[in-house]
């Protein structure tokens, strides 16, 4: 039997979160945290809604996942995120010791890889999963924003 | 008249926050955020208490200050922090656009300066304010921790 659960499956779920951010007028970035093919935390960017620059999708999902697990380290977890994390979120992922990070679109301007930000040595990174779809929602958002102003 | 308000004054207030963390068995780091010589936010490390690696003193104080200001950018604010911020907190400070950061003790292992983490171009940094006191509380904490184990 072929499992329905693969990287594309979970990145689609992260994209659904990004869509929710989009609907709220937030920069559309979404995240899910998965353990044994089960989603234990979801998050989407809420910086405008909460008036809080720390309310990135990843930060919320890290807190929610730790809450679910009852421990602060995201052992055995994989995070799927539609956009390459920024310095702050990558720094948080470092502390979380998450073993796997799957990234949709790259962020050449604000992504952690542009700087020297280090993930935890345990963290394996996979990039470019549904890159086009994850990037398109951001392009759509910024084009719409520009046209409104 | 000599103003009682200078960097040492506010770093002492941040140290009081670090003491509160110490009392709770948390790595003792404290923060205050100041605007026009008035403290608008305080925070101390609560990662153990909250089971949340994102609950660093700085992160909480950034959220609290934004809440107080009613806006997400920490315009005209100065953050006093007893220990050099980590990658995550420096990344958050980048987004906050805070104009001034005053650091007590350096953190050569986990501090943001070891990595390539960038603060906002607007942010002026001052280091080494009450460095000994800010470092001593950490040393005291780790010696005690070691002796208990």
From TrEMBL, chains A, B:
<dbReference type="InterPro" id="IPR016193">
    <property type="entry name" value="Cytidine_deaminase-like"/>
</dbReference>
<protein>
    <recommendedName>
        <fullName>tRNA-specific adenosine deaminase</fullName>
        <ecNumber>3.5.4.33</ecNumber>
    </recommendedName>
</protein>
<dbReference type="GO" id="GO:0052717">
    <property type="term" value="F:tRNA-specific adenosine-34 deaminase activity"/>
</dbReference>
<dbReference type="InterPro" id="IPR028883">
    <property type="entry name" value="tRNA_aden_deaminase"/>
</dbReference>
<dbReference type="InterPro" id="IPR016192">
    <property type="entry name" value="APOBEC/CMP_deaminase_Zn-bd"/>
</dbReference>
<dbReference type="GO" id="GO:0002100">
    <property type="term" value="P:tRNA wobble adenosine to inosine editing"/>
</dbReference>
<comment type="function">
    <text>Catalyzes the deamination of adenosine to inosine at the wobble position 34 of tRNA(Arg2).</text>
</comment>
<keyword id="KW-0479">Metal-binding</keyword>
<feature type="domain" description="CMP/dCMP-type deaminase">
    <location>
        <begin position="5"/>
        <end position="115"/>
    </location>
</feature>
<dbReference type="Pfam" id="PF00383">
    <property type="entry name" value="dCMP_cyt_deam_1"/>
</dbReference>
<keyword id="KW-0862">Zinc</keyword>
<dbReference type="GO" id="GO:0008270">
    <property type="term" value="F:zinc ion binding"/>
</dbReference>
<keyword id="KW-0378">Hydrolase</keyword>
<feature type="binding site">
    <location>
        <position position="89"/>
    </location>
    <ligand>
        <name>Zn(2+)</name>
    </ligand>
</feature>
<keyword id="KW-0819">tRNA processing</keyword>
<comment type="subunit">
    <text>Homodimer.</text>
</comment>
<feature type="binding site">
    <location>
        <position position="56"/>
    </location>
    <ligand>
        <name>Zn(2+)</name>
    </ligand>
</feature>
<feature type="active site" description="Proton donor">
    <location>
        <position position="58"/>
    </location>
</feature>
<comment type="similarity">
    <text>Belongs to the cytidine and deoxycytidylate deaminase family. ADAT2 subfamily.</text>
</comment>
<feature type="binding site">
    <location>
        <position position="86"/>
    </location>
    <ligand>
        <name>Zn(2+)</name>
    </ligand>
</feature>
<dbReference type="InterPro" id="IPR002125">
    <property type="entry name" value="CMP_dCMP_dom"/>
</dbReference>
